[in-house]
Specification:
- This protein is an alpha+beta fold.
- Helix content is 43%, strand content 22%.
- It is built from 29 helices and 31 strands.
- It has an 8-stranded mixed beta sheet with strand order 7-6-10-4-3-13-16-15, with no helix packed on it. A 5-stranded mixed beta sheet has the order 18-19-20-22-21, with helices on one face.
- Helix 5 packs across helix 8 and helix 8 crosses helix 9.
- The protein starts with a helix and ends in a 5-residue tail after the last helix.
- The N terminus is likely disordered.
- Bound molecules: ligand BES and zinc ion.
- Ligand BES binds next to strand 21, helix 4 and helix 5.
Length: 892
């Protein structure tokens, strides 16, 4: 299977980029790499030796290499006998005749005069490279200390950028042992995956730090970091050293991460029943980092906001985020690093699993945070939304060129992946699930797997037909909608399944293209006030005896990856258990989430969903409110347009505002503005949510008070970090030039990254064109790190009043954006999605016209998804506008 795949030259029609997997006949076993970064000239020099096993005679060796200048290449026999390989004996060395670079395939081919017979060899390469500023490969990161610029050399290799640092076999299945040596100026800190074993003098002022060999691992997990760092350290229960590194001056922000990492490490060792194999686990905060964090084995790198907590200025949600990211990356040390996907098609195994398990770990370590309920909106809800598009992709997706690999780091791989694992875990039961994982990880340690290997493990342990159940969930795009109704005799529940689409047009289009009816095997828990039971639905229509006379909740606990459409009578019956909370928060949340989605797809009227909100009169759960307010905000985004002449649009907006005020005022009255000592974590979050949403809904008192608090904070009075998002957002949404100036100045001076993010996140909330233009300009200026530009620009696109400016800015700066973020990666894709709430024809047209002419590397699928979303929004708006206006007559 592997060989066939590897040998095959695949021509990818869509991107027209040729792509070849490296031959399976040249196997790297061990690398010896010495790198000397030059932080003044932003270059590096490298020497490497790779021990290879050649299993088929050849004249040429092809390795991955990108933007590297290869100076000499030589090959010597290494058949294993110590005499032959020893340097003293000067073994036969052959030098390459010719180096051929293939820029499209990112390869370098070394041709030799003599045929290389089968056997073991040492391949020696001397090369030079650039420490780039693109946050990929081996790159430089910058920070200011006492007004002086300092630099760090650091790496980010996933998915395919190890090849920018050293010529290598840059595919996840080409596992090898790496011996890394870094040549650094004396006094600098050098970090890599393992601990230093030897430090030797080099030329004047330099030393060579040699690190212990790594375990057998993939190239994308290697890391090197050189710079000035401070660190704190402690030990896990079993004695693994855990260290957190920051740039100078920030080490006081590392305590939370250190404490929590150790707890997480202890938890996983016990849960997976496999010891973490290295003596040390380093966590490093880097000021310029494109992703949130990266799981390099033993040397996890984070952007600062994903690792550092300042006790006075970080919020509860900052802590949640840091804990989640840490739990995610440490989980990868097993799932991903110890056992790795064979090819990127199975990326979801890494990311979906790590996303699932991060909640499991947090649920155990911080039970009061109620993380599984949050999962229902943050991951399950997000995945259900993306995967309802016709332009989604299957969890297991065929990928070729690196550009396409970047694209799949999306909500399908992460959140749908996590959701289907959760569905399976719930079906198998905790014990079977954990034992299945243990079996899988032990069996495939230091090796590579495909999706089916995970199913095989669960099947073996549980005795259930896991592969058969899971096949359609990973091989096919989309998911089912289960329609539930009572049969005429009123004693039988009928459940039918069909693929759910966010838009009726997509549904029709899809039916025309593919008439076959997919049937998913769906584990469904049906619950009532008396009992609950799990069924495995495997037909397009299935009937069940009615469990009881009262209410029926399908997908009890919301562990299934599907939506439910109740008949009117069954839905009405659910109002009572929502009101009296006989249903759990997760179930209450799921019902309203699906109602909003059904309004979008045209299955019900939007006003039906709004009517049903009455059932949430007594609601007091943070996450349920988050779901409801997200639903309402989405309506505002879709039905509200910029031009004030669009009277319908502003009537609907003011109706939605009044409804929001009516719903949230009781919560706000109960929780007030100030924390109560020892209050629930969820109340802290709910207070901020209520204030934020009331302010955005133009509640006069809330705006007034928010402004007062803001003014006080300007005078140095401490502002509760948990309220900052809300207060800043309200101030910006009603603010003017003066407020903008204040935010920009504060942004530039701020050193706590999480606080800078908070300020950046509200810059797009201003309403005046002129200000939003300034914001766009600022986002792309040197005052904003390239890693943070995208989130600021996105806020402009998410603002219904900012979309014209957003489009203009993207068009004008497209070249810069592609230079900075294109060429693989998933950043451009994130940026595109900001405009996807627009329901305006003119935005759709501009967007379509622009991307017809301009390729979006790494974001082609996102462009299609945004177009599908906008088309669907336009329809939705046309369909329900009048009805909504009528509904809101009472509110305005
Ligand atoms: N393996 C990824 C990092 C990554 C992302 C590399 C995209 C290359 C492209 C890492 O494990 C990850 O998933 N990071 C997340 C944070 C996580 C908590 C969801 C990220 O960077 O957003
Ligand atoms: Zn991950």
């Amino acid at each position: 299977m592997k060989e066939k795949q590897q040998a095959k030259k695949i021509k990818n029609k869509k991107s027209k980029k040729s792509f070849t997997r490296l031959t399976a006949h040249i196997i790297p076993l061990e690398y010896d790499i010495t790198l000397k970064p030059d932080l003044k000239n932003f270059t590096f020099e490298g020497v490497e030796t790779i021990i290879l096993n050649v299993t088929k005679a050849t004249k040429a060796l092809t390795l991955h290499s990108k933007e590297i200048d290869i100076e000499t290449v030589s090959l010597e026999d290494f058949s294993g006998s110590p005499e032959k390989s020893s340097r003293k004996q000067e073994p036969d060395k052959i030098f390459t005749k010719n180096i051929l670079y293939n820029q499209k395939a990112d390869t370098a081919t070394f041709t030799f005069e003599k045929t290389i017979r089968t056997g073991k060899y040492r391949l020696n390469i001397v090369f030079k490279g650039i420490l780039n500023d693109k946050m990929r490969g081996f790159y430089s990161s910058k920070y200011l200390l006492h007004d002086k610029e300092h630099h760090i050399a650091t790496t980010q290799f996933e998915s395919t950028d190890a090849r920018r640092a050293f010529p290598c076999f840059d595919e996840p299945a080409q596992k090898a042992v790496f011996n890394v040596s870094l040549v650094v100026p004396k006094g600098k800190t050098a970090i890599s995956n393992t601990l230093p074993v030897k430090i030797e003098e080099h030329e004047a002022g330099f030393e060579v730090i040699r690190f212990a060999p790594t375990p057998m691992m993939s190239t994308y997990l290697l890391a090197f970091i050189v710079g000035d760092f401070e660190f704190i350290e402690s030990k896990s229960k079993r004695g693994v050293g855990v260290r957190v590194f920051t740039i100078p001056g920030k080490i006081h922000q590392a305590k939370f991460a250190l404490e929590y990492s150790i707890k997480t490490l202890d938890f996983y060792e016990e849960y997976f029943d496999i010891n973490y194999p290295l003596p040390v686990l380093d966590m490093i905060a880097i000021s310029d980092f494109q992703a949130g964090a990266m799981e390099n084995w033993g040397a996890i790198i984070y952007r600062e906001s994903a690792l550092l907590i300042d006790e006075d200025h970080s919020s509860s949600s900052n802590k949640e985020r840091v804990a989640l990211v840490i739990a995610h990356e440490i989980a990868h040390q097993w799932f991903g690093n110890l056992v790795t996907m064979e090819w990127w098609t199975h990326l979801w195994l890494n990311e979906g699993f790590a996303t699932y398990i991060e909640y499991l770990a947090l649920d155990k370590l911080f039970p009061e945070w109620d993380m599984w309920t949050q999962f229902s909106t943050q991951d399950l809800g997000i995945a259900l939304r993306l995967d309802a598009l016709e332009t989604t992709h299957p969890v297991e997706v065929v990928v070729h060129h690196p550009d396409e690999i970047g694209e799949i780091f999306d909500e399908v791989s992460y959140s749908k992946g996590a959701s289907i694992i959760r569905m399976l875990a719930s079906y198998l039961g905790e014990e079977n699930f954990r034992n299945g994982l243990r079996y899988y990880l032990k069996k495939h340690s230091y090796k590579n797997t495909e999706t089916v290997h995970l199913w095989e493990a669960f099947e073996k342990i549980s005795g259930k037909p896991v592969e058969k159940i899971m096949k359609n969930w990973t091989a096919l795009p989309g998911y089912p909608l289960i329609k539930v109704e009572l049969k005429k005799n009123k004693d039988t529940l009928s459940l039918t399944q069909e693929r759910f689409f966010a838009s009726p047009v997509s549904k029709i289009k899809h039916k025309k293209k593919d008439n076959s009816k997919i049937v998913w095997q769906i584990p469904v828990i049906i619950g009532s006030n008396k009992r609950h039971k799990t069924y495995l639905i495997s037909k397009s229509e299935q009937s069940f005896e009615k469990i009881n006379q009262n209410w029926q909740k399908i997908n009890l606990g919301e562990s299934g990856f599907f939506r439910v459409a109740y008949s009117k009578e069954l839905l009405e019956k659910l109002a009572e258990p929502i009101l009296n909370k006989a249903l759990s928060a997760r179930d209450r949340l799921g019902i309203v989430r699906d109602l909003f989605a059904l309004a979008e797809s045209g299955d019900i009227k939007t006003t039906d969903a709004l009517e049903f909100l009455k059932a949430y009169k007594n609601e007091d759960n943070y996450t349920v409110w988050l779901e409801i307010t997200m639903g309402l905000s989405r309506l505002t985004q879709i039905f509200y347009k910029k031009e004030s002449s669009k009277k319908d649009s502003s009537k609907i907006k003011s109706g939605l505002d009044k409804l929001t005020i009516e719903l949230l005022t009781p919560i706000h009255q109960k929780l007030g503005w100030e924390k109560v000592a020892g209050e629930l974590h969820s109340d802290t979050l709910l207070r901020a949510l209520a204030i934020s949403k009331l302010g955005r809904a133009l509640d006069k008192n809330v705006i007034k008070k928010a402004k007062e608090i803001f003014e006080k904070s300007k005078k140095g009075i401490h502002l509760d970090p948990d309220l900052r998002n809300a207060i800043y957002g309200i101030v910006a949404s009603v603010g003017e030039e003066k407020e903008l100036k204040y935010f920009l100045e504060k942004y530039k001076k701020e050193t706590l990254h999480a606080e800078r993010d908070r300020l950046g996140a509200v810059l797009g909330d201003f309403t005046q064109d002129k200000i939003l233009c300034e914001v766009a300009h600022f986002a792309l200026s040197s005052d904003v790190r390239a890693q943070d530009t995208i989130s600021i620009l996105s806020t402009i696109g998410l603002n219904p009043l900012g979309r014209n400016i957003w489009l203009k800015c993207i068009k004008q700066n497209w070249k810069t954006l592609v230079y900075r973020y294109g060429d693989g990666g998933h950043t451009l894709a994130r940026l595109m999605k900001a405009i996807s709430f627009s329901a305006e024809e003119k935005h759709l047209k501009t967007f379509k016209d622009f991307f017809k002419k301009n390729p979006a590397p790494g974001a082609e699928r996102s462009v299609k998804q945004v177009i599908e979303k906008m088309e669907s929004n336009i329809l939705w708006q046309k369909r329900d506008k009048r009805d909504l206006k009528k509904f809101f007559k009472y509110y305005s």
